[in-house]
Write a structure and sequence with these properties.
heterodimer, A: alpha+beta, outer membrane lipoprotein receptor (LolB), chain A, 13-stranded antiparallel beta sheet, 13 strands, globular, B: alpha+beta, Multidrug efflux transporter AcrB transmembrane fold, 3 domains, 4-stranded antiparallel beta sheet, 25 helices, elongated
């Protein structure tokens, strides 16, 4: 994979005539950098309220792409800490043409319950991220946005392309626009500014500690912060034990597994 | 002082110029005046209730909530649902509103059990289309105790949108925006706006409206009053000028030193009008009486000052000290008023004894005989004679009335009922009463329970204790409903277990709470528990706005709580705006008794110094003490509450009422040197009594202006003060002839 990246780095200047790539080209590179077949990892997130109090939870994530063309995924999220919620899990099976299927397993109930599919604007696990954000980070919907290159900037010491993404007519989104900063080296998202429907800055996503994931050829941010500028709430996320495209047991993404884990 | 006073008639033009300069300089302080309408900060920082409220705020933040209510026959209809959605969105965008914490049917997340599984989402994410869907929505609302009776009234007539405000919000901006929203969405249904910030803003606007109304009315009334007393243009213009200057100086002083206008000091201009005009009346009364004895204006000024300087100075100092006695209160706005009143009365005395002589010195002494003894003299003479002749009857009447006054004084209700600040038809009061009637109540007492350990509220034993305690709270009188994380756990437990409910285990509580976190907004979740799950808050909604009901409730809860929380350290903290009122009530009672004693002591001591006689000093206090008892008796009899505004009464009655006694006794002992006691009493009643009568009339008329106030406590204060002035006047006129009458002297003299 490193060879492919080196190839791109060598060949791109020739392809683009030594000029900066267009916004769409950068976004295509971004999508490529984030596209995965499967992923495992541990997420520790801390929600910090505007009063400064915090609450930390840890969960194990298993993600598997179930449709390459449609870029839909199966997701299993299982809490591992704190102890009293360990074992609580949600299973989501994304579909391209119908509503997602979602189940909740509470160890206290010992059975799983089907739950209505989360809406795109619903908060993800009580964090400042929404299901729409999660979906966009897994697979940027290139057809649904107009991208405009705003320039090149430095973000936390890294050279980045600054791009504006405005939803096309008919796109279902909670945002009026997003401003994106894509790392020129890894093509990962360094920062996103989200604007609400009224055009006001809503929240800022920032990625830190970008490192290669083993020798998978992929890079990932190991630390992320999302700050809601309107409410003052902050979510800090730390990732560890990433494994990309190492294969996951597809049996995991079933109601039976959920209840018998 | 003597030199300064003589300067006024020896250099009248210089003095008038200086007065003008001072008026301009101090007048520039008036625009600096600020208004304070909040009751927080009224209590001393070391007050235990105040400390508890502050500690509760540390854990759960300060929550000022505004409420919009949509009242209709049935809120489960498309047009009402659309209004709830739009109003929630618009409310979230108002400046000062915390957008993620707006609570309504449109924002609240619900988890409902369906045949296929769990339905999660907002109640109004998709507007129902069919009748069946509306019925399902109604059933979902009725099945969720976090909504039913809280955001939608039982029966569905009132739907509420609640919006917490961020710290530092601008009350005026929020109020205007809410009023605009309420007008915009007004239709067949009624839109109510309420909540503490709205009521506070109503008070603020009422204060401004009062100020704009009171001062002109009071000044017009004293114009008329002075003309009726003296029938001369200078007899009107000079004292009115003095009154206006006194107000400008005092309010400018307030502006410069940063004392704000409050619901209490709002009454100051009118009190100043009454007090300053009474000084002016005594001065001008003597000026006209002495007119024949002087050849020039300067001479007449000197003679008037010589005669009235001391009594006016004494009354000014005693009034000022009476007001200063309010400093004994532990309530900020009363202490502030004590300072303002003390300074203001001294300013009025100073202006009376400098400006009036200076102005009079420039005038020629009045020659005409238009200034008559007045129609009042004859009735005053008759009253005095009657008292002297019917001493036993008069004494008997007092002996009958006074015990009744003592009895009714004991029945006075303490504390301000905030809602009853406003007239019945006031929109804010109607809204609050509608919320009280349709929902669990609009006043909230927050009880923070400390579980003593990280995550302690997830402990099943603690949960059971909380549940039992909350059930107990629900049975207390005045409590409309209660709300805590227990309701969340119970609702989720029932929903996930097909409506079956059993006491949850530690892990069940933890998992239900996490489910709540995953589905609700942080504002919604952490309004009832801290992020570390160490403390839980019970919201107790109160239907009554009577501070005495709140006080009784607080005491009962404190007394009974230990039987629910036996573990050491499981302390309760009490928060919410009702707690400030409870503490205020405590200080009002304590401060009131101390204030009465201190005011009487200070004034008595001053009179002792001035008269150099303990008997005379006690005599000055006699009509005041009896009048006070009668006023308190009346308050108890007709149910006027002793609140912040009415607490001023003692200081004002003592401070201002002492004028009557001092003038009467100074006049009596002066004439007593030449006449027998009964004749001296009759003479004093006729001559000094006349000035006192004018003084009383000017005070009564002046204080009556306060009854035009938009606030009931200020109205009550105004007419009670006016009534007190009448009582002191009558008691002065009845009691002195009663106790100072010496028939033996007449017999000896006759013999």
């Amino acid at each position: 994979m490193n060879r492919i990246r080196a190839f791109y780095l060598l060949i791109l200047p020739f392809l683009f005539g030594f000029t900066s790539p267009s916004a769409l080209e950068v976004m295509q590179l971004y999508r490529k950098a984030t596209a995965i077949k499967d992923l495992r990892g541990i997420i520790t997130y801390t929600n910090i309220s505007k009063t400064g109090r915090s609450q930390t939870r840890t969960l194990q994530q298993h993600i598997s792409c179930n449709n390459d063309a449609a870029q839909t995924y199966n997701l299993l999220l299982e809490f591992t800490a704190p102890q009293d919620v360990a074992g609580t899990a949600t299973l989501t099976l994304q579909h391209s043409k119908r509503q997602d299927d979602q189940w909740l397993f509470l160890p206290a109930l010992r059975i799983s319950k089907r739950i209505s599919a989360s809406k795109r604007s619903d908060r993800f696990m009580g964090t400042e991220m929404t299901y729409e954000d999660l979906s966009t980070y897994l697979s940027e919907p290139l057809d649904e946005y107009e991208y405009k290159m705003l320039g090149e900037e430095n973000v936390e010491g890294r050279a980045a392309y600054h791009i504006e993404a405005v939803p096309k007519q008919g796109t279902r989104t909670q945002y009026s626009k997003r401003q994106l900063w894509i790392d020129q080296e890894t093509h990962l998202m360094l920062r996103t500014d989200f604007y609400d429907e009224k055009g006001q800055l809503l929240k800022i996503y920032k990625a830190y500690d970008i490192k290669p994931v083993g020798d998978s050829g992929f890079f990932r941010a190991y630390r992320v912060e999302v700050e809601n500028k309107q409410t003052g709430n902050l979510t800090k996320v730390a990732y560890s034990d990433f494994a990309i495209n190492q294969g996951v047991d597809e049996q995991m993404f079933s109601k039976t597994y959920l209840e018998t884990q | 002082m003597q030199k300064l006073l003589s300067f006024s008639f020896t250099h009248p033009k210089t003095l008038l110029f200086l007065c003008l300069v001072f008026t301009v300089v101090l007048g520039l302080g008036i625009p600096k005046l600020e208004k304070r309408n909040s009751f927080s900060g009224e209590l001393p920082k070391d007050d235990p209730i105040n400390q508890g409220v502050e500690a509760a705020k540390q854990h759960f933040g300060e929550r000022s909530i505004v409420l919009i209510g949509i009242e209709s026959e049935n809120c489960f209809r498309p047009e009402i649902a659309k209004k709830i959605i739009s109003l929630s969105e618009e409310l979230a965008n108002l400046p000062g509103v915390m957008p993620d914490e707006v609570l309504s049917l449109a924002t609240l997340r619900n988890i409902s059990n369906r045949d296929w599984g769990l339905e999660t989402g907002g109640f109004l994410d998709e507007l129902p289309q069919q009748q069946q869907e509306w019925l399902q929505l109604q059933a979902d609302v009725e099945g969720n105790p976090l909504v039913n009776g809280r955001l939608v009234s039982k029966g569905g007539k009132l739907a509420v949108i609640a919006a917490p405000l961020a710290e530092g919000f601008e009350g005026g901006v929020v109020y205007d925006a809410l009023t605009e929203l309420s007008e915009k969405y007004q239709g067949d249904e009624k839109i109510h706006i309420t909540g503490a910030p709205v009521l506070v803003e109503d008070v603020q606007r009422g204060i401004s409206a009062d100020s704009r109304t009171f001062i002109p009315i009071a000044i017009v009334l004293i114009f008329v009053g002075f003309y009726l007393c003296f029938r001369r243009i200078e007899g009107v213009l000079l004292p009115v000028g003095m009154v206006i200057m006194s107000i400008i100086w005092t309010m400018g002083f307030m502006g410069y030193i940063g004392l704000p206008v409050t619901v209490v000091s709002n009454a100051l201009p009118v009190i100043m009008v009454a007090v300053a005009s009474s000084y002016g009346i005594h001065f001008m009364n003597a000026y006209y009486r002495l007119a024949k004895a002087a050849d020039s204006g300067r001479e007449l000024s000197r003679l008037t000052l010589e005669k009235m300087g001391m009594p006016i100075l004494i009354t000014g100092v005693t009034s000022s000290l009476g007001s200063a006695s309010l400093l004994i209160f532990n309530i900020t706005s009363l202490r502030e008023f004590g300072i303002i009143g003390a300074v203001g009365f001294l300013i009025a005395t100073f202006i009376c004894l400098t400006f009036l002589p200076a102005a009079c010195a420039l005038l020629r002494p009045p020659k005409s005989t238009e200034y008559q003894e007045g129609w009042i003299v004859r009735p005053l003479q008759l009253i005095t004679r009657w008292v002297q002749q019917q001493r036993l009857v008069v004494a008997g009447i007092y002996l009958l009335i006074l015990p009744a006054c003592v009895y009714f004084s004991m029945q006075i209700n303490i504390g301000d009922d905030y809602l009853r600040f406003f007239p019945k038809e006031h929109a804010g009061r109607v809204a609050a009463e509608t919320f009280n009637e349709q929902l669990g109540g609009v006043r909230v007492m927050d009880i923070v329970v400390d579980a003593t350990a990280y995550g302690g509220i997830k402990d099943a034993v603690f949960f059971e204790d909380m549940a039992a305690f909350q059930d107990f709270l629900g049975t207390l009188p005045g409590v409309g409903s209660t709300n805590s994380y227990r309701d969340v756990v119970e609702h989720l437990g029932k929903t996930l277990n097909d409506a079956k409910w059993k006491s949850p285990t530690n892990s069940e509580i933890a998992q239900y709470l996490m489910l709540h976190e995953m589905s609700a907004t942080p504002g919604e979740v952490f309004a009832l528990r801290t992020e570390d799950d160490m403390r839980a808050k019970i919201q107790v909604f109160l239907k009554s706005s009577d501070p005495e009901v709140h006080q009784a409730l607080y005491e009962q809860i404190q007394q009974e709580a230990p039987r629910f929380f036996e573990k050491e350290g499981e302390a309760l903290l009490f928060g919410g705006d009702v707690m400030h009122r409870i503490a205020l009530g405590k200080y009002i009672v304590k401060g009131k008794i101390e204030n009465i004693l201190l005011a009487l002591f200070i004034v008595g001591l001053t009179c002792l110094v001035v008269f150099r006689s303990a008997t005379k000093s006690l005599l000055t206090l006699l009509p005041i003490a009896i009048s006070l008892l009668m006023v308190f008796g009346l308050m108890g009899l007709i149910g006027i509450r002793l609140g912040i505004s009415t607490s001023l009464l003692t200081a004002m009655v003592v401070g201002i009422g002492i004028d009557f006694a001092v003038h009467y006794l100074v006049g009596y002992y002066r004439i007593r040197k030449r006449l027998m006691p009964d004749e001296a009493l009759e003479y004093t009643s006729m001559h000094t009594g006349r000035a006192i009568a004018y003084d009383a009339v000017s005070n009564i008329v002046g204080f009556s202006v306060l009854s035009f106030s938009g606030f009931l406590p200020v109205q009550h204060f105004g007419w009670l003060l006016a009534f007190s002035m009448l009582l002191i006047f009558l008691n002065t006129l009845l009691l002195y002839p009663l106790v100072l009458y010496r028939p033996l002297h007449r017999a000896v003299a006759a013999g």
